[in-house]
Amino acid sequence: MPRTKLTGVAPILLVKDIRAAADYWVSKIGFTEMELFGEPVNFAIGSRDGIRIMLSQVAPCAEIVPHWKTVNMMWNAYFWVDDAKALYEELTQRGAIIDYELHVKPYHVLEFGIQDLEGHDIAFGQILK
């Protein structure tokens, strides 16, 4: 029997303000498309270079706990890139919230991290050959 091929993955981040979060992913992280859903709007799917992110708005009283608050230095999303230095420079110029600077990790990845408006840690890594 032929094996079905997985064609993508999309991290899902919980947010308090879907419109502000969607705008951050477009203006600060460079996602070129952000489709909004619901009436009122409560869900978004964004993409950049064929990679997707999903945003889901929580109830006003809900608490959002980023992973790093439960497990030290743990991300909510990790994206592999082909040029971490160029992306770091781009996101810095765009005004993304830099969580940690570009550096080589012990696992041979050139990596940096940002945060979104909810404090989720999002990392970008380039495998070094």
What's the shape? globular
- Number of alpha- plus pi-helical segments: 2
**Mean pLDDT across all amino acids:** 96
The CATH architecture classification is Roll
Determine the CATH superfamily: 2,3-Dihydroxybiphenyl 1,2-Dioxygenase, domain 1
Which blocks of ≥5 consecutive residues have pLDDT under 50?
A: none
Q: What is the radius of gyration computed over CA atoms, rounded to a whole number of angstroms?
A: 15 Å
**What kind of sheet is the major sheet?**
4 strands, mixed
N- and C-termini, Cα separation: 35 Å
Overall structural domain count: 1
Helix/strand class: alpha/beta
Would you count the extended β strands for me? 8
| CATH top level label | Alpha Beta
The quaternary organization reads as: single chain
Q: Secondary-structure element order, as H and E?
A: EHEEEEHEEE
Under CATH, the topology can be stated as 2,3-Dihydroxybiphenyl 1,2-Dioxygenase, domain 1
- With strands numbered from the N-terminus, the spatial order across the biggest sheet is 1-4-3-2
What helical percentage do the residues reach? Answer: 10-25%
The portion of residues forming beta strands comes to 35-45%
Describe this structure in words.
The chain is α/β, with parallel strands linked by helices. It is built from 2 helices and 8 strands. About 15% of the residues lie in helices and about 35% in strands. Strands 1-4-3-2 form a 4-stranded mixed beta sheet, with helices on one face. It has one domain (about 10-60, about 65-125): 2,3-Dihydroxybiphenyl 1,2-Dioxygenase, domain 1 (Roll).
